[in-house]
């Protein structure tokens, strides 16, 4: 009944508007509709309906009324995408975005509302995603969050035709030149500007097209990895010294630059050590160029604490271990920790970070490791922290075969998490605690820490 009333109130305008307006607008259709926004959905947009069909509209808020232009109509999939032409009724929760690039820039989705609201959106999305997959979430979803600004310790920026640094546009692959980025550590923005100033004086065909900048939590050390297009005839040595000087001067930090191992044609000359030291709690970690490391410098300590606190025993497995963020901490409470990581950029640092501890680094894929070890060994704890694709069927089956007393699943994608949890619960694990961990404030991305209890302990 309510739905019908809402639909009635969605006055259809169907005003023709010129196609192809706006940067990169797909403009497959020019229909204009007035919609009422219902709720946030994963991916940064908000759900509205036109004649029952789902329409995803970015940069709106629940309860708002807007005149929107349909930009893509995915008939086969039964949904459409739209952009706001005019906000008719704004929600009281709407605020002015802090960043002047919010909107065109593809980096942030939620700067138009307060932080508490953003957290509520993410909890709602997480609960719904779990429940849609048939996973009953605990009554209370916990939250781990911190300061929502200047948190990023890593940015990847491109350079436009004038050499200005920028991010990819929200609606296309075009570059949006940036003058600031309030979600990133200021050091990174200064370094990007410094690199841009030097590169602006270099002919476009001799410029790297992107730089990946990574700093430690205190902004005292910085890694810069420059990327050049495949096959480009670059002679970067002549500008390397100037670039280094300017970036260091602006950043005010020690700089180590280098290539990504395994991708020599895409990167420039190596200078410096190629790694930095990242302090988490009482622990120093070596992190090399190209190695994965958690992105939110305000939350890494809290995350490690949430994953490892109170965990002890004889044997723990840290699968998808990166440079050993969790394994190093677990080594304080376990007689043996096996840390499995497949990326060559991470395995050397993983070995170094576990040296002299009860941890052992295994350079292998998780699947290969489990195929060899899942039957016959039962660790007291398994931590899994896979990439977006999640664990997948065979790993879930093997983890079910292990039946460890405790399993902690750290996930950066709620949909694959929900799919895997369903399989693990069917295999005998029970979901005990879920924490929405807001590693990416102002954006739609969300991390989850799910704690499961295994069949062995429950039977005992
Ligand atoms: C989300 S990161 C987590 C890393 C680490 N737990 C941390 O918090 O720093 C996922 C890690 O899994 C690694 N990885 C990806 N696919 C893998 C696989 N099939 N087997 C083992 N490691 C893999 C990646 O290189 C990356 O280091």
Automatic annotation (TrEMBL):
PANTHER family, sorted: RNA M5U METHYLTRANSFERASE, TRNA (URACIL(54)-C(5))-METHYLTRANSFERASE
Location of region: Disordered: 1-31
Chain positions recorded as S-adenosyl-L-methionine binding sites: 294, 320, 341, 385
Species in which this protein is naturally found: Occallatibacter riparius
Keyword Nucleus among UniProt keywords: no
Domain TRAM: 26-84
Active-site residue numbers: 412
MF-aspect GO terms: rRNA (uridine-C5-)-methyltransferase activity
Keywords: Methyltransferase, S-adenosyl-L-methionine, Transferase
GO annotation terms (biological process): rRNA base methylation
Lineage top rank: taxon: Bacteria
Taxonomic lineage: Bacteria, Pseudomonadati, Acidobacteriota, Terriglobia, Terriglobales
Family affiliation: Belongs to the class I-like SAM-binding methyltransferase superfamily. RNA M5U methyltransferase family.
Name of the protein described by the UniProt record: Class I SAM-dependent RNA methyltransferase
């Amino acid at each position: 009944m309510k739905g019908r009333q809402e639909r009635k109130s969605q006055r259809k305008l169907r005003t023709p508007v010129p196609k192809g307006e706006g940067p990169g607008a797909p403009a497959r259709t020019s229909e204009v509709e007035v919609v009422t926004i219902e709720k946030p959905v994963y991916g940064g947009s908000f759900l509205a309906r036109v004649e029952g069909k789902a329409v995803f509209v970015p940069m709106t808020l629940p309860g708002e009324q807007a005149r929107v232009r349909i930009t893509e109509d995915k008939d086969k999939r039964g949904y459409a995408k739209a952009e706001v032409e005019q906000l008719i009724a704004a929600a009281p929760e709407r605020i002015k975005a802090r960043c002047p690039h919010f909107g065109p820039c593809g980096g942030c989705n939620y700067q138009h509302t307060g932080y508490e609201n953003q957290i509520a959106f993410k909890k709602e999305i997480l609960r719904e995603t779990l429940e849609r997959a048939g996973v009953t979430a605990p009554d209370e979803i916990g939250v781990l969050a911190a300061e929502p600004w200047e948190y990023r310790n890593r940015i990847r920026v491109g350079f436009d035709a004038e050499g200005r640094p920028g991010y990819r546009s929200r609606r296309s692959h075009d570059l949006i030149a940036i003058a600031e980025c309030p979600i990133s550590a200021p050091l990174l923005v200064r370094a990007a500007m410094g690199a841009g100033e030097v590169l602006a004086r270099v002919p476009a065909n001799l410029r790297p097209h992107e730089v990946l900048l990574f700093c430690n939590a205190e902004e005292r050390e910085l890694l810069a990895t420059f990327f050049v297009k495949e096959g480009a005839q670059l002679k970067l040595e002549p500008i390397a010294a100037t670039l280094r000087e300017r970036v260091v001067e602006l950043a005010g930090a020690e700089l180590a630059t280098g290539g990504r191992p395994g991708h020599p044609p895409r990167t420039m000359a190596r200078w410096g050590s190629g790694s930095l030291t990242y302090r988490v709690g009482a622990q120093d970690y070596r992190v090399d160029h190209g190695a994965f490391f958690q992105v939110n410098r305000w939350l890494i300590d809290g995350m490690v604490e949430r994953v490892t606190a109170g965990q002890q025993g004889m044997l723990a497995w840290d699968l998808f271990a990166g440079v050993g963020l969790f394994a190093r901490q677990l080594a304080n409470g376990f007689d043996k920790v096996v840390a499995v990581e497949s990326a060559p950029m991470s395995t050397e640092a993983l070995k170094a970070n576990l040296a002299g501890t009860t941890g052992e680094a295994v350079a292998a894929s998780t699947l290969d490791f489990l195929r060899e070890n899942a039957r016959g060994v039962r660790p007291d704890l398994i931590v899994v922290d896979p990439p977006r694709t999640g664990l997948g069927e065979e790993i879930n089956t093997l983890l079910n075969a292990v039946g460890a007393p405790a399993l902690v699943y750290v996930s950066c994608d709620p949909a694959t998490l929900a799919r895997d949890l369903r399989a693990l619960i069917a295999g005998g694990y029970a979901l005990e605690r879920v924490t929405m961990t807001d590693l990416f404030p102002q954006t739609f991305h969300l991390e989850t820490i799910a704690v499961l209890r295994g069949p062995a302990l429950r039977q005992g």
